[in-house]
Amino acid sequence: MNIILLGPPGSGKGTQSYKLVEKYKLSHISTGDILRNQIADKTSLGLEAKKYMDKGDLVPDDLIIDMVSSTTKDIDSILLDGFPRTINQALSLEKEMNNLDKTINYVLYFDVPFDDLIDRLSQRISCKNCSKTFSKKDDEYICVEGCLNQELYQREDDKPSSVAKRMETYKELTEPLLEFYEKKGLLNKISANSSILEVSLEIDKILQ
Ligand code: AP5
User: Fold this and answer.
1) For residue 30, how far is its CA from the centre of ligand 1 (angstroms)?
2) Ligand 1 touching residue 162 (CB < 6 A)
3) Which end of the chain is more exposed for a tag (fewer CB within 10 A), N or C?
4) What is the predicted pLDDT for the residue at 71?
5) What region does 96 belong to: left with phi over 0, alpha with psi -120 to 50, or beta?
6) 97, 80 in Cβ contact below 8 A?
7) How far is the CA of 179 from the centre of ligand 1 (A)?
């Protein structure tokens, strides 16, 4: 089973990925996490990507496409989180999947009102070790993945000026993918502004 998670910043793609990976034995490919690891390792890709990410812009397609295709070719069941994000990336993925004799089975679209997203992103804190995300509204600021000593931090691009730009970028470049996948009969809309558990149950109904 190969799945794409599609949705605006803060819509809960990362949060649900951790559950899906465990339940359906998928390999999680989060382009955001890969890029943040590249930045932490100070690679040339990381240094180049950081210039775009901090401002809330997308990293150029050629860099992202090369990065993803070098990962997907050896994997059977893929959960793509944050890719594709442009029509160009979607076309390239389609070509890559055809070459590998694979198909995308589901595109799960996380639908959340924009005002809720702004609130979620301003409250989000992430684990420096495993990248899992939490909310400042949670009772305890600790990573539940066994990373107890790992600092939780606010991402640079979750600061208000970058969030506004990320929302604009999403509307302009990523939202057209909804029609792209709708026409292919792959799009499944999730009401992702309910609780984390309810969202998870809604996804299960689609996948089972
Ligand atoms: P990326 O890391 O992919 O960021 P994003 O798509 O903007 O998604 P987020 O990580 O912000 O949100 P999410 O949907 O995963 O939400 P989460 O589960 O954390 O990309 C970052 C940057 O990298 C991009 O801006 C771009 O520059 C670059 N990039 C990445 N991929 C690229 C690509 N393909 N092409 C070009 N550039 C690329 O949840 C958010 C918060 O809400 C958390 O605090 C969580 O606890 C809380 N929450 C989750 N679900 C719920 C719920 N149901 N109810 C209440 N709270 C909830």
Assistant:
1) 9
2) no
3) C
4) 81
5) alpha
6) no
7) 21
The closest of 23, 174, 189, 182 to 87, measured between CA atoms, is 174
As a whole number of Å, the CA-based R_g of the chain is: 16
What is the pLDDT at residue 140?
Answer: 67
Specify the residue with its C-alpha closest to ligand 1, atom 8: 9
Contact (Cβ atoms closer than 8 angstroms) between residue 150 and residue 129: yes
Using the mean position of ligand 1's atoms as its centre, give its distance from the Cα of residue 59 in Å. Answer: 15
The one-digit pLDDT tens for each residue of the chain (208 residues) are 999 999 999 999 999 999 999 999 999 999 999 999 999 999 999 999 999 998 899 999 999 999 998 887 778 899 999 999 999 999 999 999 999 899 999 999 999 999 899 999 999 988 888 888 888 887 667 777 777 666 788 888 888 888 999 999 999 999 999 999 999 999 999 999 999 999 999 999 999 8
What stretches of the chain show up as alpha helix (H) in DSSP? 13-24, 31-40, 44-53, 61-72, 87-99, 114-123, 160-169, 176-183, 196-207
Give the active site residues: 13, 85, 124, 155, 166
Q: Is residue 8 lining ligand 1, measured as CB closer than 6 Å?
A: no
Alpha-carbon distances of 153 from 9, 107, 130, 162, 168, rounded to whole Å: 17, 30, 12, 16, 24
Q: Is 82 in the pocket of ligand 1 (CB under 6 A)?
A: yes
CA atoms within 13 A on the CB side of 33: 18
Query: Would you state the torsion angle of the CA atoms of residues 88, 54, 123, 23, taken in this order, to the nearest 10 degrees?
Result: 40
Cβ of residue 58 lying under 6 Å from some atom of ligand 1: yes
